[in-house]
Amino acid sequence: MPKSASTSQPTRSRGDAACARLGTLILGAVLLLSALAEAQIVSRAVEVEFETRERALFPARFEWSYSTTRDWQERFRWLDALTRGVPGELGEAEEQFSAACLLDEHPDVRAHALMVLAHHELGLPEPLTMDLAEKLARDPLPRVRLNLARVLEFMPGVEVDTQLLALEEDSDQEVAQQARASLLARDEASLAAQLQLFQLEPLRLESDEYLEALLVLEHLPPRRTLLDGVDEIFAGATAASEETVLARRCLWHALRHGQRQRFNPLMIADGWGTPLEEADEQLERLRRARLLEAVERGNGQLHHQLMPAANKASQRATEEDDPDGLELASWYLEGARVSFYADPALRTRPEHFPISLDTGEELLLQFLTDVIGFSNAWTSQGLESYFEASPELREAALRTFGETWSRTGDPNSRRLLARALEYPDVAENAYRILVSGRHRVPEFPIMYRWWKSQPEARRYELLRHHARGVRFEPWRESLLNAWSRKDTRIVDVAELLAAFSEDEEVDELLWLWLHGEIRTLEESPVPDEQVTRGPWREAEARAQWLISAWLRVNSKRGVVNDPQQEIELLLRVGGLGRELGKLLVSHLVQSEPGRRATLEIIAVPGLSRRLRFEILLTNTDIKSADGLRELFVGYDSCDEDLRLRILKRARGLDDPGVRARLLEVIRDRQAGAAERQLATEVLATTGGEEEVVSALVELLGELRDYDLRQSVVEALGSRATQRDGLGLLQLYLDPESRELFADELLPAMVAIELRGQGVLSEEVTALWRAQAQDRAALELGKRFRSEDLPDRDFVYSGWLRAAQELLEAGQLELALGETYWQWDGRLLARLAELLHETNTRELMALAARIDLAALTAVLGEGAAPDRAALLLRLRARLLQAARWRGDWQAAGGWSRLLLDEWRTGGSTTSAIDSVFGGLDRMREMDPRGWILTVECSTRAWRALSEGRLDQARVLIAQARSMVGGSSQARAAVRRLEQALDQAGD
Prior knowledge:
Blueprint: H1 2-57, H2 72-82, H3 92-100, H4 107-119, H5 129-137, H6 142-152, H7 158-167, H8 173-184, H9 191-196, H10 208-218, H11 224-235, H12 242-257, H13 265-272, H14 281-296, H15 303-320, H16 323-341, H17 361-370, H18 377-383, H19 391-408, H20 411-419, H21 424-435, H22 444-452, H23 456-462, H24 476-484, H25 491-497, H26 504-522, H27 535-554, H28 564-573, H29 579-588, H30 592-601, H31 609-618, H32 625-633, H33 640-649, H34 656-667, H35 673-683, H36 689-702, H37 706-719, H38 722-733, H39 735-757, H40 762-784, H41 792-795, H42 797-808, H43 812-816, H44 825-837, H45 844-859, H46 867-884, H47 888-903, H48 909-916, H49 927-945, H50 949-961, H51 967-984
Helix pairs in contact: 1-2, 1-40, 1-45, 2-4, 3-4, 4-6, 5-7, 6-7, 6-8, 7-8, 8-10, 10-12, 12-13, 12-14, 14-16, 15-16, 16-17, 17-19, 18-20, 19-20, 19-21, 24-25, 25-27, 26-27, 27-29, 28-29, 29-31, 33-35, 34-35, 35-37, 36-37, 37-39, 38-39, 39-42, 44-45, 45-46, 46-47, 46-48, 47-49, 49-50, ...
């Protein structure tokens, strides 16, 4: 028995191992088959996407006879293509096809058919319009009901209003939101139904849907009858909670009247401290954001109501130790601050200063932090009393004074900074702020007395904070005396004395002290350059400071008229290291007399070699290779810093000796990387084309350093001829080289051909297209799998540089080819940006074509974090292009799409801000004003173009009421008014 047991164990082990191996093989096979199946699915999806793009962009290539097809997927793809086209450009056959799909048995087809009608502002087909609407409203797929709500907006009739009211109560929140938006966007005939959205009390008043309805109104053009009707409803509104009604009425008031600066401060103040009952945190944040936005657009009156409320709330919270109360007080203060900033007049009247010492210290500190940098008298006069309150408030007030004075030059802030010198805890900070300004102030004597009262060692430390170039007159004698003492000879003293221009006494003393330092240097041996410390180096540093100061005092505005003194000084210090001579030469070569004088002394016997080098390197009057040959003779004996300067000086020299020396540097593996790189760049600028190109081609075959080869390729792109470009082409065709140098080779080849013959050869054109075409399917497949892709500027760096070359040569449109619409959507968007950056009207048609291809592509890609903002940006650019070319039908479609995205939440606030900018009163940016105005003004332009002047006049008046705080919108309305005047003439 034991034996049997012992012999059977290995058999079971071998069997288990075999099973395990078999299982691994089966699992591997399954995974492989799954991967292959997924690859096939993705491959087919990419193929279908390309077909859809082509149908969307080039509908004329296809015959519209697909309404009888039995393949629902085929019908879906055609409908998908129609939703990506230019809004308003739907043919009769396409419209009939879309209408026929409304009763399709597949819900996705029905949803997309409705989407097509909504995209092109079409209603349901007759004669079964409302019967069809009721049937679709019961569709189990929410997207069908949502798109139905969009379509009903464009249809007349009371029955449509009833249907939208029913959809507004849909269980799906997106459907309900779209129904509200569509109903409120309809004309005056729907007023009764629109007001029903606000009449279902008290339940309606206590629901989140109420607030969402208000926000939809905010995103619509103001219509007086609707707004007045809602006002009347609120006048008699009652509910289980009076506070809830109050909060909602106040919010409504802010949304309606805040845009036109007519709100009632008392009503808004009541709403400020009354939160929405039963509202979640997100909704409460939304309510507060809307209140703040309304106040920011307002007239500044609200701070008179909110500041007392902030004071009371702060005191109550402190007495009761209530954190929630303190948060409410902070919220009151935030409203008061925003309201205060909204009115420039308040900031010039100190009696309106919005905060008092009765407010809790924590809120005061918060407020003082917020107001830093605001200008004019209210800041300083209002905060003066804080000096006596506490050290913390004194310090906060000081920061406010300092920022205000530094930015605006407010004299009251400057005066209070000087007064702060009386308080030991803030005096030094006040002094540092005052002396760091770049202008003299009347309080200099007060500041000087405080400075003199400090311990001697501290006085000279404070000099480092003094602004250079300011003539601190009271300090003059102290500065002169400071240099007379050996232990206080610091750079700050010399630099501050430099401001006393044309002061003869300062001039003479600086000259005397300078010669004293030079004698010290002459009496001791010059140390090795590696020695950076010691008495000699200290004397050298002092001499540098004095030379700089003396040059500024002695030379009017730094211009050398008679350089004799400077030349004598230069000859004297020429052998004393390099820094003193370098400083004087750099000063002399700034003027024509100084450059002439330095040329004359080059031949002086005994002139140090380093000084000769400095003159040769900095004197721009020396332009020939013969004059600069000496630099290269001693090249090897120079340090790296000097060698780099020599290389830079060699730019543009046409000399075989210079080229030979540059080639030696490039080939020298012992030379530094920066030195070899710079030599490569300089070589491309030196002399005849044939010699330079020949040398670069030779280097390309020799070098193995990747960075150097990159530089050589770029240099060839700037100098090579068509014949030499063939070598780069061969290099590009080598897969390994192309992978290494694609970013350099492609733009180099394009530049060579465009420079040589003005157009690209078929071979290079094909290579440029292929880099985008070959990656298109792969990258689209990755997007379908929600994989992140690198930034297009990074991946396509060389390709985009080549595109820039083509654009500048006027060849981009020709190079695009027939299938550019298959490229990555973000790459197409980036390519269109290159065209927009030229700001050339002639290129707008091409830019619009590429933008439309990019939009079509992005609509078919998977979800991505940047997708909403990108779609918004592309539609905004297409709108701009349509307006520029006067295509008001297309412009109307694009502007309506932008408005619809905004009012229904399809585009996030961050996406809106990234495209149109956030609300900013100071810069006159107001996305709401711009989006509303551009939609209305587009309809006005269309009316003008069709000769409907009365309707245009009404639309212009509407656009004028929507401008808000947008300077862009205001300018657009002015252009409309001018066009109307001209049309009337």
